[in-house]
Amino acid sequence: MRSLIDIVDFTPAELDELIATACDIMEHPADYAERCRGKKLATLFFEPSTRTRLSFEAAMLELGGSVIGFSEANSSSAAKGESIADTAKTISCYADIIAMRHPKEGAPLVAAMNASVPVINAGDGGHCHPTQTLADLLTIYREKGRLSNLTVGFCGDLKFGRTVHSLIGALSRYTGIKVVLISPEELKLPSYVKKEVLQKSGIPYEQTTDLSAVMPALDILYMTRVQRERFFNEEDYLRLKDSYILEPRKLQNAKEDLCIMHPLPRVNEISVAVDDDPRACYFKQVLNGKYMRMALILKLLEEATV
Question: pTM for this structure?
Answer without folding.
Answer: 0.90
